[in-house]
């Protein structure tokens, strides 16, 4: 009698929280949504936040959930996890981590080794409490540190990195616009709507139908 092996299960959650505090969460969302906005018109760029990435088929222990990741060459769409063998073997090329006080040096060292081993091309870390910004880019088989992140231009994203005078991270798109929080975008949209309503009212007072 042959007993068939049970199929390997790949959980969609690792049981860990997305963030440890509101500041970390705010930056994770700002970066992830900014990346979505950056590639909104490109159907072949997949962006995700806090999504478990399984690089090896049959191994559900080797995994990582970057705070944000970008995959060029894969379609947009919902996924429970990123199973690389189901994605034409394409690894996320760019990953971001936003640090919190709970992150340890050994933990972040393991993440760096994971991203290096499984093909990440660019890896960026931001600590919003200490105002530290670091980056690594692939050279051969290694992820090597970027010497100066102030003004650094990501080869794959086309985004320029900078730290403002107050220590906040600034990510500047190729069109010169910066990544913004949802609140900032919503406020600007609301202000534009109010200006349009005021212009419509004035035109009607002049007997013109807008």
Description:
A six-stranded mixed beta sheet has the order 1-3-5-6-7-8. The longest helix is centred in the last third of the chain and has 24 residues, at 182-205. The chain contains three helices and ten strands. It folds into two domains: 22-179, Alpha-Beta Complex (tt1808, chain A), CATH 3.90.1570.10; 181-210. The model has no long low-confidence stretch (mean pLDDT 90). A hairpin with a 4-residue loop joins strand 6 (122-127) and strand 7. It is globular and about 75 Å long. The chain has helices at 22-38, 105-117, 182-205, and strands spanning 45-48, 53-54, 68-72, 82-83, 94-98, 122-127, 132-139, 142-145, 160-163, 169-172. By secondary structure, it is of the alpha+beta class. InterPro entries: Nuclease_put_TT1808, Restrct_endonuc-II-like, Uma2. This is Glr1010 protein. It comes from Gloeobacter violaceus (strain ATCC 29082 / PCC 7421). Keywords: Coiled coil. Residues 36-153 form the Putative restriction endonuclease domain.
């Amino acid at each position: 009698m042959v007993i068939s092996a049970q199929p390997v299960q790949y959980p969609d959650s690792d049981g860990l929280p997305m963030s440890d505090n509101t500041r970390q969460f705010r930056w994770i969302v700002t970066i992830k949504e900014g990346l979505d906005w950056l590639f909104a018109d490109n159907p072949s760029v997949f962006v995700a936040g806090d999504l478990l990435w399984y690089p090896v088929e049959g191994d559900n222990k080797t995994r990582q959930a970057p705070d944000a990741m970008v995959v060029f060459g894969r379609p947009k769409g919902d996924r429970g996890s990123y199973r690389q063998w189901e994605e034409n073997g394409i690894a996320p090329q760019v990953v971001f981590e936003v640090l919190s006080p709970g992150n340890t040096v050994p933990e972040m060292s393991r993440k760096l080794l994971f991203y290096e081993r499984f093909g990440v091309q660019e890896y960026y870390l931001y600590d919003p409490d200490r105002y530290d910004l670091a980056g690594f880019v692939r050279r051969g088989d290694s992820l090597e540190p970027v010497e100066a992140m102030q003004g650094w231009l990501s080869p794959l994203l086309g985004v320029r990195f900078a730290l403002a005078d107050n220590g906040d991270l600034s990510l500047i798109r190729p069109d010169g616009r910066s990544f913004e929080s949802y609140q900032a975008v919503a406020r600007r949209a609301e202000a534009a709507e109010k200006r349009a309503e005021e212009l419509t009212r004035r035109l009607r007072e002049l007997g013109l139908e807008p």
